[in-house]
Design goal:
By secondary structure, the chain is α+β, with helices and mostly antiparallel strands. Strands 1, 2, 3, 4, 5, 6 and 7 form a 7-stranded antiparallel sheet that branches. The two termini are 16 Å apart. The longest helix is centred in the first third of the chain and has 37 residues. It has 2 domains: 220 residues, no CATH class; 91 residues, no CATH class. It contains 10 helices and 7 strands.
Length: 349
Amino acid sequence: MLFQFIPVCVFSLIFFVFLLELGDLFGNLWKYLANDVPVASVLRVLWLYVPKCVSFSMPLAVLFASSYVMGMMHARNELTVIFTSGYPLYLLVVPLLLMGLALSVFMYFFEDRVVIHSLAEKNTTNRHLLQQKEILNNTNIVVLSKSGSVIYTADYYQEDEKKIYSVYIIIRDADGSVRSLIESPFATWNGDEWVFDRYTLYDVGPSGGIAVAHSGITVRLDEPPETFRKNTTSVDELAASDARKYIMALRKAGLPYSEQMANYYKRFSFPYTIFIVLFFSISLGGRFKKNILLMSLLLSLSVAVLYYITQMITMILAKWEYISPLAGAWLPVLFFICASGAILRYART
């Protein structure tokens, strides 16, 4: 089984990686031509994209190779001989399942140690070649600082001048009650803290009365300007340990983090796609006796498209917080495990 499976898997992996590389190349070709990017630089970008293409292509290659091998065994009547001799299907495919499990574990470490760094370098190189400048200005900002005791709200943050406009800063006591409110047209970062050109301070007294002043801020407002920037960092470009720290920083600052958390969990669930697709190929691959190459390719693409669409839907639901980030990452995996188990239940044996 392995001697038949491995060569087909390798060649199909190369084929799918080539298709993805062509898609990325032609998608950016007009940009490269418009910016007179040298051929050597384009080839470097394509080389840096290879690990990510391998990550995307491995489930497709495994699914195609296993379904093709099972189909060829069926076409040559080998499955008939095996089954009539009393050899069960699950023993026949144990080598493939063990290889699928090993590949799933390998792909997690490959993603964390290789793919993430190459993808980050590829995106950085691409932005440099295409002269794309990241826009870090932000609007409608709400930031929790100092464990929620200080809340910043601003209409606009300007990165070039390190300024926030239409600023309201709420200062709370330990029990969460409002102690004072600072209102200012804008504040400027001086390197250590936010400085106001002019401001109005509203102090809430013990009896609930409000005193208005134009001086007397006693709290150090030193939340760094990086917190106010537009979020351009993605956990897809961070190692697992760094991604977790980044998500915790977003959560502490009161910024949206559901999408990033779902992508973080997907990093652990996605490698098991390889193991899942083997169930489909085992149960369905032996049903083809004619046009095996074409039918195996169609089966691979159909199952992959269905899986990725399901995953896309659950990730969107997690982003919009209709479901938890954990469910958004793992629901497709659980659903396809159950579906493949049900199909395997009625597989020929």
